[in-house]
Amino acid sequence: MSAEAAASELRLALVGVPNSGKTALFNRLTGSHQKVANYAGVTVERKEGRFIGSSGRSYRLLDLPGTYSLTPTSLDEAITRDAVLGRLAGERPPEVVICVVDATNLRLNLRLVLELKRIGVPMVVALNMSDVARARGFRLDAAALEREVGVPVVETVAVAAGGARALVENLERRGLPDVPQEHPGYRDPTPEEVLETQRDARRILGTIGYREPARQRVLQRLDAIVMHPVLGLAVLAALLFAVFQAVFSWAALPMSMIDTSVSWLGNFLHATLPPGPLRSLLVDGIIAGAGSVLVFLPQILILFLFILALEESGYLPRAAYLLDRVMGSVGLSGRAFIPLLSSFACAIPGIMATRTIPNLRDRMATIMIAPLMTCSARLPVYALLIGAFIPASKVGPFNMQGLVLFSLYVAGVLAALLVAVVMKSTALKTSYHPLLLELPEYHWPNPRNLAIGLWERARVFIRRVGTIILAMMVLLWFLGSYPAAPAGAPMPDIYYSFAGMIGRALEVVLAPIGFNWQISIALVPGLAAREVAVGALGTVYSLAASDDSIAATLTPMIAGTWSLATALSLLAWYVFAPQCLSTLIVVRRETASWRYPLAMAGYLFGLAYLGAFVTYRIALALGA
Amino acid sequence: MTTLPPEHVLALPVALSTLRKGDTAIVIGVRDDHLDVGDEVRSTLAQRLLELGFIPGESLEVIGAIWPGDDPIAVRLGRSMFALRQREAAAVMVARAKDPRS
Questions:
Q1: Does the first or last residue of chain A, that is N or C, have fewer Cβ atoms within 10 Å of its Cβ?
Q2: How many residue pairs from chains A and B have C-beta atoms closer than 8 A?
């Protein structure tokens, strides 16, 4: 962009209380022209988008974190205050602040408007969800509100096409000052001043004749069930069950399509390119490596579709309310529930979802235990080992294999709770942090918002797969391919590679937990992602790596050569071991420090070794 | 002259944390001097409660509570609903409007 165009660009910032429909308005104005990054030096998400007004002027719109007030209680809220005041390093102050208010809850929203007005920020008020408000019987008078507050008030309907246009046209018509404002004399208001603005807000609402109808009976009845301490948990359990069913059944087809395409591409290149390092790098390193992570995209998207829909509907805070007590007993916030739930599909979106936890240490504790939730990448490993070693016999009404799988899930959850207790009473000890959670009104999720939210997730995930994760995959490929095996060597090629050397060295350490050299070697490339170990075992046992039915061929092979104790020990290892570099890389990015990923890897490997050792020894003692 | 039924007699101020599900009350004020929440939180909690609308004169209703111990509770305040733990609810002083147990 030329300097001239940048100069004429108007910088806008969206400010609003949580659940005011701010992000929906942001999506409506900017569509898919969004850029998501972090604010300099912190892990708060920075969302910016661009759009062109009907006059042809271009706008840059910053979606600031939702806040009830400019007196922050979390890092996100501090960012919003500092951005509005122009105090953020590397961030020019907005020329106009758009304060988004929920027309169905002016009593909660109006105080922030008055607070912003008081510090003299050039602003307009977007009276959002005005359609919903009218439909639900609210008496609303935008013109009177504008007169009383003394700043422009524009009705917007964030979920309808054109519902945001009025806002931009209004901005252009009024010609607001485009001089960046600075507020050197700003200080946080005292409680007396807060009370005073609240009284002002109440007076204004009285003057403009704002009337709230009684809440719909059907919503009250819904809450009586959803928020009931017992029925509510049953509803939650049913919802979770449905979500997991969908994640695994809907994702099956797209996953196999991705898998097929990746192996087709691999086979195609394998057949077209001359043999050599380049072909190996492309086929075994890049395509196989990126493919092994990309295959989880459908599951991640389906999971996020549900999370976004539940979030937009207003259900999630209610779930956090229900679970606050349980989570609180291990020192976590009720808000940790969603990230941990996501981690059952994949720890990466789970760790990304911890951004909604306001307290930094609570957030770190949640990130640290997220990898203990049994992610879907463990399933191929579990399926292989259970299929090979656990008989499909009936135990009462249950299948033995199913019971073992279930107990692996439970083991992960129990370990997570234990680790949380330990961490929250030692390294991540916090002073008390209030819950004070708003339980917003229910809303039907908007498909367009869901689509944009999903697109955002997909982009973040693919970008990560395409950059650092790919680089690590290539590194592991290198370790697994060089140096080449000597001619006529009796062992599979990987035995002679760096990965093989590392694996054989590891065997010394891993022998006490029952791992042979084949397993030890497979764990090295298996660091890339858990399920890679299945393919790596195939390679170690000299099976054709491109064989789709590798697990089927591998099953009798390991069933015949490993002891049951070894298999159980490896299962225990996989409950804990951080055999997923992508997770560690995401933790590094989310925490902006190497401290947490290193601590995570350390404690998880420690637990894995301990868990496998105990399992192996007990199994041996029982004669397995 | 008839006597007012008990539920119309304004009681002495009590903490919101002492209310049970179904109770309604009027907010008297917010105080933070006696809270078991640590200094850092104490300095912001009262202010945040005021910002959320727990201001004198507003009426509220406890619409839900998690067993055992009613922690957290769900409170309707105007058109908003909030979940508060006992420790936060102890900061809000209210006058009971109605006592279903009487």
A1: N
A2: 117
What would the mean pLDDT of B51-55 be, rounded to a whole number? 94
> A320 contacts in B (CB within 8 Å)?
83
Search chain B and give the residue with CA nearest A432: B37
| pLDDT the model gives residue A497 | 86
Instruction: Report domain extents, chain A.
Output: 3-213
- Chain B: nearest CA to A137, how far in angstroms? 13
DSSP A265-305: HHHHHHHHSPSSHHHHIIIIIIIHHHHHHHTTHHHHHHHHH
Retrieve residue B66's tokens.
Answer: 């998690």
CA distance to partner chain A, nearest, from residue B93 (Å): 15
Would you list the DSSP string of A165-233?
HHHHHHHHHHT---SPP--TT--PPPHHHHHHHHHHHHHHHHHTT-BPPPPPHHHHHHHHHHTSTTHHH
pLDDT at A218: 93
So where are chain B's domains?
6-98
| Contact status of A108 with chain B (Cβ, < 8 Å) | yes
**Which of B39, B45, B70, B80 would you mutate first to test chain A, the one with the most A CBs within 10 A?**
B80
Judged by DSSP in three states, A380 sits in helix
Q: Which two tokens stand for residue A500?
A: 């093989």
Q: Is A345 on the interface with B (CB under 8 A)?
A: no
**Pairwise CA distance, residues A86 & A459, whole Å:** 30
Average pLDDT, chain A: 85
Can you give A127-150 as a three-state secondary structure string? EECHHHHHHCCCECCHHHHHHHHC
Cross-chain Cβ contact A198/B50 below 8 Å? yes
Q: For chain B, what is the mean pLDDT?
A: 83
The identity of residue A508, as a single letter, is V
Contact at CB, A432 and B65, closer than 8 angstroms: no
The domain A3-213 having CATH identifier 3.40.50.300: the answer here is: yes
Domain at B6-98, CATH homologous superfamily = Ferrous iron transport protein A (FeoA) (2.30.30.90)
Q: Which member of A191, A317, A328 has the closest CB to residue B50?
A: A191
pTM across the whole model: 0.81
